[in-house]
From TrEMBL, chains A, B:
One of its GO terms (molecular function) is ureidoglycolate hydrolase activity. This is Ureidoglycolate hydrolase. The keyword Membrane does not apply. Its EC number is 3.5.1.116. It comes from Marinobacterium lacunae. It catalyses: (S)-ureidoglycolate = urea + glyoxylate. It is an enzyme of class 3 (hydrolase).
Length: 169, 169
């Protein structure tokens, strides 16, 4: 199967999680030197004595053509990824519940935009583009098994042919 | 008073909080495509029915010469700032407890490095350099008054004269 990514939007991503980005209604603080774009994600990290943690994921791009073979979900928590650099990246998701490969959606995300996968949303692991890229990750430490993985019966090849502009450095 | 910033290090920053950066001992995950630099900050966000939240702070550089007039602290929580772009920034801190201007330390921080102020650490608000810059902020929503501010009797002028290399785009 071949999929082309589409630019992410908060509306399209709503079934899967939160798009973490600046908006049109910030709060002016710090004598006007800071715009606070407030409370942008539904963090869900405290189940079963969970605690929120921050990590950095250093992601190496997959070889071209990018091929997706697995998806994962976290049944006990959300997981947020925020890029720390100036490269775009890919996000592949499918709805929570029983995994359905026919419902996989593929997005391209600009630097400056983060994503927060809601609890149970199926997603591919970090998919950097163009260069090794660091992501700030907000997830959970705690009891219980918090990662399920499925192997795709039919791998997905990513068609990046119309993404030259988005993926250019 | 004139202060020159010094490059931040985890060791020097320990009395004030956590330096959030990649280290030498990551965990290899995702079939080797991701290095997980795990659990890099002591988040302290749950006091008085607090909940962790994420926001984006869009920070405008202060006019040159950069002059510091105020410091603040959060008595109920930590507060983390992670740059989302490729510019350095300044961090001014003083130890928790009764405010002592003679103990202010000034650091310059590279892109790719975040800071997590521990509960009660005095700090200046977000100090972008070179360009308007976005920071991912992890702090607390909840009951209680969680911000104290002091005005410096003697403003601090920041001497950036030796920071050309660090502050260059």
């Amino acid at each position: 199967m071949i999929l082309k990514p589409v630019p992410i939007s908060a509306e399209q991503f709503t079934p899967f999680g939160d798009l973490i980005e600046t908006g049109s209604d910030p709060i002016a603080i710090n004598y006007g030197y800071t715009e606070r774009h407030h409370d942008l994600a539904s963090l869900d990290l405290l189940e079963q004595e969970g605690r929120p943690i921050v990590s950095i994921f250093r992601s190496t791009p997959l070889p071209q053509p990018v091929t997706l073979n697995v998806m994962e979900r976290h049944p006990l928590s959300s997981q947020a990824f925020i890029p720390m650099g100036n490269q775009p990246y890919l996000v592949a998701v499918a709805p929570a519940g029983e995994f359905d490969a026919s419902k996989i959606r593929l997005f391209i995300v600009k630097p400056g935009q983060g994503v927060n996968y809601h609890r149970g949303t199926w997603h591919h692991f970090c998919l950097a583009l163009n260069a090794v890229s660091d992501f700030l990750v907000i997830d959970r430490s705690g009891k219980g098994d918090n990662c399920d993985e499925v192997t795709l019966v039919e791998p997905i090849t990513v068609d990046l042919s119309d993404c030259e502009e988005s993926t250019a450095r």
